[in-house]
Amino acid sequence: MKRNKKPRYITHKPTPVEPLDPDALIEVQHLSKRYGELQVLNDVSDKIYQGDKIAIIGPSGSGKSTFLRCLNMLEDPTDGYVFFEGNNLCDLNVDINVQRRRMGMVFQQFNLFGNMSVLKNITLAPVHVGLQELKRAKRENLKNKFLNLFRGKDSKMPAQHVQTTKKQIISDAQENALRLLKRIGLESKANAYPSTLSGGQRQRIAIVRALAMNPKVMLFDEPTSALDPEMVGEVLQLIKELATEGMTMVIVTHEMGFAREVATRVLFMDGGKIVEQGAPEKVFGAPENDRLKDFLSKVL
Length: 300
Prior knowledge:
The protein is α/β, with parallel strands linked by helices. It has 9 helices and 10 strands. A hairpin with a 2-residue loop joins strand 4 and strand 5. The radius of gyration is 22 Å and the shape is globular.
């Protein structure tokens, strides 16, 4: 059955879609999220461009993590739209799993598979996607081979050249994983299991796992909140390196010093809304909103 092309999460009359900014990597239009009577996000709009480093700050319960999770549809918006590279992620005809491959996500609690080695954790998704694409190419060739039996000489479809094999896909994924592990100094832990590693090591491996998919943007949901204080620095250092290299990122954080140093733009959220935003020097040095002033007086 053909699925409805209208946004899939709208529960009432949808907000009209505004003209898209062709330069925006992610564009959010009038995003809202409710759990029953609880309004968690209230008409949030924003644009994220290639190379942006967006830090989202605010008190607990302000909607920061929900907003982040709505960007890749881990949370279903109640209203509004999220566009990624021009694709409406609220459209049922958009394959959300394909879109998520280009949006790396790092959680508070690492979310590594405890029954798999570090190497297996990192290679699992790239191998799965690579094998899916290989099977799709082979199926397409088989289909065309059959249909060519009934086509005229001038209308036959050529076979799609398959340049890889299952063995090569696995080998390439492992080579890339080891390269990334070497970068963070943990290549010796490739065959270790997550339970044997420190929290800082596990979070760095979670970041590397996301990087293994070559994402266009990285989403960090309070990546240091579950770490002991002495482990926070090593994780923040890796994120700083990614920022320096030009990675687009959106990070929910309570690390105000990190946000001030790394972010190109800071969003302050309260009550499910973005109540102030701007360059770090403006948000931290000359805040205008009274709620932001009060928040900063308690955390700085």
